[in-house]
Amino acid sequence: MLRRLCCALLAGLVAGGLAWPADAASSDVEQLRLGDPARRERSIDVVLDGVTDTASGELIDTVELARRLQDVRVLFIGEEHTNGEFHRVQLRVIEALKAAGRKPIIGLEMFPWDPQPALERWSRGELDEARFLDESRWYEMWSHHYGHYRDIFRYARDQRLKLVGLNAPREVVRTVRGKGFEALSPELRVRFPPRVDLSNAEHRTLVRAYFDDDDPLHAKMSDEALEGIYRAQVTWDAAMGWQAGQALTVPADPREIVVVLIGAGHVAYDLGAARQLASGFKGRIASLIPVTVPKRINAAYAQFVWGVPRTAQPTLPVLGVSLMGRLGQQPSAVIQVDVDSSAATAGVRVGDVLRSLDGAVIDGTAALQRKVGDYDWGDAARLEIERAGVRMTLPLVFRRSPQEAQ
Q1: pTM value?
Q2: How many structural domains are present in the chain?
């Protein structure tokens, strides 16, 4: 898993992407001795469908969870982006907070901090899902199947909850990665905490823990390149943490709570987004991360953990290819085919150019992901490709990889 994390993070950096890798929680990372000194010397067993308060080790229900969060202003809920069980937990927490009389504001990793009229229009019930995906540019902003988040967005619309993008735009991440925070203009610098900390040794340990020591990409990278990756990670943490705090109403409404949907790597041990926010924020901050069971974890991993069942990944269909990106006016070529993926089974090869999927033109990654969002596991489709100048059609069935089901 960690090698996949490394490749995903590096691919996101090259593309200027917004997100920590999808599967941001691993058994090794969950057992590190980091974070809160009062908890990191203890371990706890995670209970399926149970919420554990890691400060006391108590098993609580969602009503009690909402009570213990009653004075929290920002709650970070970590996720594996392609795991539906994690998103089910996020929705359950939002529902519990709303039932307790809170006014949840949903902070989103997948959208930048720029104004997002489509989010506002969705919350007002003015858009159907097809128009929302188009107007928000979901598959340009975010590479993951909308179906993972559908129930959360529908609940937000039905309850008229505010949705806000929190992330740094891609060009900001690229600037900091290459030149540091000092290269940002004053107008951009105020989007971050007054002090952005890049010196925390524990956070550096955590980030390095997501990489295999022997993975080929990591092993060949220079110290300068690795430092650039670390600056990018801190950029995401600091931007999303600080913007979450800024989403609260002024003057303060104590019923409001910003619930941040964010990769677990940004939440673990409260060393990422929460730590950056805390440097200049006066309200209480909390963290919750779902954890697959059976699992024994370090108690400092998050302030609350919710046990979820292990499930085949990803929960919803993917084709299983990576595309190079458009070259001039030409559609992108396949640069990687995942082993045992639907694409591999259909016969897709590196170098093939994807032309259409069931008649929908594929001119890049966003178009591919948007079309794949129409399918469920077991659905059949026809994939038109071009190989060495020859067009051909491959029969395709969306099936999970046997390796992912283990």
Answers
A1: 0.88
A2: 2
Same domain, 285 and 339: no
Written as one letter, the residue type at 37 is P
> Which residue is it, tokens 């998050």?
302
Beta partners for residue 227, in sequence order: none
Cα distance between residue 287 and residue 38, in whole Å: 16
The 10s digit of each residue's pLDDT in 204-241 is 999 989 876 555 556 567 888 889 999 999 999 999 99
Give the C-alpha separation, 158 to 334, whole Å: 40
Taking a C-beta distance cutoff of 8 angstroms, is the pair 271, 206 a contact?
Answer: yes
Domain containing 242 equals 2-309
Instruction: Please write the tens of the pLDDT for every residue from 348-403.
Output: 999 999 999 999 999 888 889 999 999 999 999 999 999 999 999 999 999 988 76
Cα–Cα distances in Å, from 46 out to 54, 267, 322?
10, 17, 35
Looking up residue 358, the CATH number of its domain turns out to be 2.30.42.10
Q: In this structure, are residues 338 and 321 in contact, taking their beta carbons and an 8 Å threshold?
A: yes
Residue 235 and residue 363 in one domain:
no
Q: Based on the fold, state whether residues 276 and 336 are members of the same structural domain.
A: no
